[in-house]
Fold each of these.
Amino acid sequence: MTSSSTKPRRRISPRVATALTAAVLSGTLALAGCGGEPDKPAASPSSSPVPAPSVKSAAKLVHVQGKFPRSRRQAVATNVAKVVDRWLQAAYVGGDYPRATSTFTAKSFPGFSKGTIAQAGKQMSLMSNATIAPQIDAVEVVSSDVHVDLLANNNYPVGAVARIRLVYDTTGDRESRQTVRGSLDMVPTETSWAVFGFNITREEKLAQDPSSAPSASPSPSGDES
């Protein structure tokens, strides 16, 4: 519904603006190599086709710091979410289960810069299904959301923070509900976005074993003595 009144612009809180600015500045320094070029996301070998994605996050641009046209905002959120989904697919959802922990490698972090891949590789149990992969038979996505805070300059995106929440169920010996949430710090590349930092938490809720459930108390059969 259109209206003749002008709606006030949403202002980003100083805390969000500061976080975005700091993320972009630190990411630029972290990504810069000897030639001043940011690290490119690791490319998957052509001999290993990427499985059809089964993660498709609901993408939403929540905050914008700087000048950026409204007509392009959803496209930015969608493009950021595609990079996030590639990681979620490779690290948690895709592939055959059960499988060995050793099958989780640098390829589990597509879209991450080289330095960030090394950091994530030291936290495989958090950043992927590496630890539980031998104990599960399948993964089913319950929900996945990506909310984006964008930092822009002169109508161009210069950085973003993707706040993610992935919920999925596992079956097999380790039947559970897994929740991955947190944030990814990202910068634009020539053709996409690259992850240069992360702050991720993971929660596991194991399904109750029916054999461990307490037995029902017998019904009263008479008056108290």
Note: The helical segments are 14-31, 73-93, 114-121, 124-127.
Amino acid sequence: MTAPDSTRLPPLARAALDRAAAERSTTGLVEAARADAASRVLVLADDAAPLASPAELWWVSPADVPDGAEWAFLGRDDDGAAALAAVLPAGSQEPFGAPAGWAGLRKVGGVLSDFDAGAFVEALSLGRWLLDAPFCPACGARTAITDAGWSRVCPSCSRQHFPRTDPAVIVAITSAHDPDRLLLGSNALWGAHRYSCFAGFVEAGESLEASVRREVEEESGIAVGDVTYRGSQAWPYPRSLMLGFLASSLDDAAARADGEEIAEVRWFTRDEIGSALAGEGDVVLPGRASIAHRLIADWHAEEP
């Protein structure tokens, strides 16, 4: 596996928020930040956050947050003010109006500033764990939140638990013979004409390289040669770390859908990808917040 040849980061990897991790063990950190009017709070209802404009999050003061939220310390902004997440219970409606409404990470993550994009994916990843994992997996007792939202301690068996991250590979496949062709697949659960890269979770005891080769062959029938790492980003649906790759086909004619997860595979020309990225024609590609979009767009922009 070769090293990345691009310095461009995927959209949700462009974090500019100082996580200030050394502060998390400070007793009463969240409570002190909630009492400080200068603190900034990102409120989440399901996977949506409030917007100040179509490309900017709307941060509120602690006093504006409704009751019932789980709180966590995200870090500090450039002025040293605390940045907090306030995560409302699953199924919550939008608790207040926002200047540009509310939107999910998938929709706006690709157009936010580095600070907002990093904060949104951090808050959503951490917030989902706070809501979904209240009980100790070892003994079943309800745990207590510690480290300003970043860990849980079981009062029964004293085990400490942390947010879980599941690694997954995501791969765009280049042609064995034609530098202007890229293989993408259409998931069986999607509508017609929607295509993306091939992806799957890394299995127990498996390397990233082995996972790329296994997933690609399982889903597309393609055995790959060179594998090039292109970057990573968190994807909190529900708790993935997506590791992006380009892989070169050894035999283009072997391409075929697995018929279960993947309904169709298709070789696209560079011109066809360019048209789809521009929103022309009937082919739908992944949204700008996803690393799949970055893999496809970077391939299209490179000289063959």
Note: The two ends are 20 Å apart (CA to CA).
Amino acid sequence: MKYVLEYPGERPGASEAFMHPAVIRELTVAAEECGFAAVALSEHPAPSLKWRHNGGHNTLDPIAALSYIAGVTSRIRLLTNLYVLPFRNPYLAAKALGSLDIVSGGRLIAGVGAGYLRAEFAALGIDHTRRGRLLDESLAAMCRIWSDPGSPVAGEGFGAPGPVWLQRPVQRPHPPLWIGGNGAAARRRVIRHGAGWMPIIADRGMAAAMRTTAIESAEEFSEGVDGLRRELAAAGRDPDSVDIQIVCPVIDFADGSSVRTAIDVLEDLGKRGATWAVVHADSTSPDAAARSIRAFADSVIAR
């Protein structure tokens, strides 16, 4: 299992102190030194105040923030979790993500998804009901743009009129694409374009809020993984070539039983096919986050 630090400033209730450059540098360098394989940031360019006051959180533009993190680290991978492709023209997305891959020396993992906040789509002038279709179009377009940047690509509402000049990403043929979402459509996108699947094990209420299919238990997670592996094999792809990310249980490091329970859950999900886990550090303060990053490394990563 490899571990991803979700930047603690994106947890609900986290203070503005997590937005300071020195804190971002301290925590991400600590994560790299402690053996985390990646650091992740989400994307919310225009979330509603209602969302923010009902479990939402602070956010930074992930391209800007991960580019800064790339400059203060050397090995840790940079994960967008998730970059909402329907928000933008595929050429702009390919340019932004490709630039991040270049300035990081090939450390980008492009976690992408359809998005879910209806008010955010309205603020950006995007038809929320078209988000699935736009995601499919963007995935296909970006792969073509990255792999053969000179050939013009066209789609719904965009189109290069002739050959285009763009630098290719460092990773070839392009950065790994991890697809978010629990349902059959997400798995179909993984089979066609993805190097990773990012499901969420959550109850039906949370799944409904995120506009995805519910995966409520380890057993349902197994069913999804088994189905994905069968479909990958049928498509001629090696099922072992696709990473699968889950979320680590929250751990109270002062409670030995909490640590043991979390390790047991991670081992069980690993046996069911998970290869990466997102870790939520203590977000009560930057100092608490630093302590919990090191405690996780000592209790889980180093075991």
Note: The mean pLDDT is 94.
Amino acid sequence: MDIIPVPAFRDNYIWLAHDGRHALVVDPGDAAVVEQALDRLGLQLGAILVTHHHPDHVGGLGQLLARSAVPVFGPAGESIEGVSDPVFDGDEIRVATPALGFRVLDVPGHTAGHVAYVAMDIEPGLVFCGDTLFSAGCGRLFEGSPAQLAASLAKLAALPPTTRVYCTHEYTLSNLAFARVAEPDNPARDAYALQCESLRTRGEPTLPTTIGRERAINPFLRCDQPSVAGAVAAHAGQALQDEVACLAALRAWKDGF
């Protein structure tokens, strides 16, 4: 199984997983670039996964479905035109072409019904997590609460450390710039930043990352660490009651960074 990023808009990645004949597409905000990739690679669209309702993730559904009437899996808690197979937390779904299985995780916060898809048949594992988790960052709180986002990030962080993380925006360098402020002393993060800067200089994506790497460098997964909690409390000018309060203050800090 090959998984490639299809760049869209300014910084989106639409993920395309294929077996050389059929393709699974994740969060197709732009149908035109997906169709170009399918035609270039000689692939037939087999199925679509959707993580949440934002237009840059679902805007291409209508055009793609006009081309191929394929199953579209998407969050049951959100109203998305074109979704044929609503999914719930804990569901196990099977895609026929290409042959893939996924376990569904509810990961609200960025949106109220956001889901992620954890592959069941691929080693090392992988997760398509939409906009909930980014490399060195996380999604903004548009519809959910800090407590929901904290629980969602904890679900993702609990996946095996080798799990590859396919998020949907190339935000890594800007996230790392904030991470340097939110946790000033993190050598692993600094080494990763040099690697990512080299990749972007060559025009290559920084993704996928891994759960293990994100546990080591992502401040939003490290609110239990004194190095992060102390920096956040100092910025907020007050003591923080718990990790949820730390995450809320960290997210607000990043919003204005």
Note: The chain has a mean pLDDT of 97.
